[in-house]
Amino acid sequence: MSTIKLDPRRLSFIRTMDSRLVSYNIEMTEVTGGTFWRPYTPGQIAGKEDYPQVEDLSQLWKLMEVFPPADLYEERARELAKALGPAYIRVSGSWATNTYYDFDGHTGGQPPKGFQSVLTREQWNSLLDFVKYVDAKLLVSMANCDGVRNPDGTWNPDQAKLLFDYSRDYGVPIAAAEFMNEPNTTILGGTPSNYTAEDFSRDQDAFFRFIHENYPEVLTVGPCGSGEKFSPHVGYHNLEVIPSDTLLQSCIEKADVFSYHMYNCFSERGAFLGRHWTADQAASEDYLGIPYEAALFYKKLRDKYCPGAQMWVTESGDAGCGGNTWASTFLDVLRSADELGRFCTVTDGVIFHNTFMSSDYGYLDHKTHLPRPNYWLALLWNRLMGVRVYDSGEEIREGLHCYVHSRKDGKKGYTYMIINNSPIQKAFIELPGPGIRYTLSSRTLRSGETLLNGRPLTVLETAKLPALEGESVKAGELELSPMTVTFLTVEI
Question: Name one GO cellular component term (predicted).
């Protein structure tokens, strides 16, 4: 049993966060249509059915399914995205590295030599309209495949110029750009064969200069680090990973924003690639601490190569390769909540949840666009947690992960987010005065059900959200059930 006594008078200010902290990805393959991760079965999601393993990359196709382009005009998806509030939307993913931009229809939908997919004008318009409707800012990564090479092997900016100019002229300019997705593991990303760290440094420098000279208002973001063994709890088995430090050593142009990707592990789909954690470990201290270890690791590189820059986690999810079997359930809410809370104690920046509405880790169900548990967490965070971050003064331990921000409503006081990740023990909070409580829970951890103060959260009609009403609590002892996330607003 854990107990803490809240004392708002002793809180110390840490920093002010970007108001678009909670952001998300729409994969390029969602926009164009194409292959993505085959959904788990209901039995696999519930933990009642095993997932069949593959042996190596040659069998990767068995994990995939072909999907049509996402309907970005669908009312429910648009309204639920808008309800989250202003965000960055990143359009990228491994598929973006080899996508051809065809805005006049000359390809007839057939990828030119050196590319693997085609983005049409209509598809990009739908994405730009979505970004504008939900009051987002756009982050993209570029194609970096055989199709965008000059005769001497260097990167050619013609396709990038087409994308930037078209988006600007359409009225939804690109706000930020990474050169490419996940350069640390080029074998998986569609780059030219034998693409080296030196090649990346040369080409990213060329891209950043291209941005500075032609679109000086656009933030340059990089290196988009991924796959590095920053902790004994993560890592590929045998795949070669180029360290971000190596990628950046030869770079001349400094990024405006330092970026990396954060997945706690490989999902059941990708267990052949590297470390996989099981569902019974999903609330453990070691597992929940992985994003914090990543933030500290990459903070050192940020300070070395672009001191003072924000850090953007341009992909974040429970597990690479589409998410774990429990990614779409309440069990993953504890990880998402802890990553948000602890990241803010390390640095200013933005976390891009992967994805908004595709695969098992999406905020929304791919078919119905109904919210999954992580959506409700993000919505409550954005409704309650302000941008000013404070040190709670409490050591993080099983049963009590406590994070403190200013109130989003602007009133004097604070919002606490307290995670009880103990599977069996209650936690207790001593309140010095009255407050308002918002507790997220589920009767079945491996289900899509989310309760707010014991009442199910559901969307009414097409996209009508329920009233996210808190429960008034008096000064004294407050009990927190196991495996719950509680937001608590207090006045001073």
Answer: membrane
What's the CA dihedral at 330, 480, 438, 86 to 10 degrees? -50
Residue 302 to residue 289: CA distance in whole angstroms: 20
d(CA 30, CA 28): 5
Residue 280, pLDDT above cutoff 70: yes
Rounded to the nearest 10°, the torsion over CA 332, 333, 334, 335 is: 60
Closest among 133, 134, 77 to 375, alpha carbons compared: 77
Measure the CA–CA gap between 137 and 13, rounded to whole angstroms: 28
Distance from first CA to last CA of the chain, Å, rounded?
28
Confidence of residue 187 (pLDDT cuts 50, 70, 90): low
Asked if 136 and 88 count as a contact pair (C-beta separation under 8 A), the reply is yes
Q: Give the residue carrying structure tokens 């292959």.
A: 35
Alpha helices in 349-451 (DSSP H): 373-384
Give residue 330's identity as a one-letter amino acid code. Answer: F
Closest by CA to 15, choosing from 416, 488, 349, is 349
Structure tokens at 301: 């590189």
Return d(Cα 430, Cα 432) in angstroms, integer.
7
Domains in the chain, please, with CATH? 2-14+390-491 (2.60.40.1180), 18-387 (3.20.20.80)
Distance CA 250, CA 56 (A): 33
For tokens 């976390």, the residue is 351
Predicted confidence (pLDDT) at residue 155 exceeds the cutoff of 80: yes
At position 141, the amino acid (one-letter code) is S
- Evaluate the omega torsion of the peptide bond into residue 223 and state whether it is cis, within 30 degrees of 0: yes
| Cβ 489 vs Cβ 410: under 8 Å | no
- pLDDT per residue over 113-152, tens digit each? 999 999 999 999 999 999 999 999 999 999 999 999 999 9
Total-model pTM: 0.97
**What is the identity of the amino acid at 347?**
T
Other beta carbons within 10 Å of 472: 9
Exposure string of 82-108, with b = 16+ CB inside 10 Å and e = fewer, is: bbbbebbbbbbbbbbbbbbbbbeeeee
- List, for residues 190-210, the tens digit of each pLDDT value: 788 889 999 999 999 999 999
Given a contact cutoff of 8 angstroms between Cβ atoms, the answer to whether 163 and 120 are in contact is no
Contact 80, 371 (CB under 8 A): yes
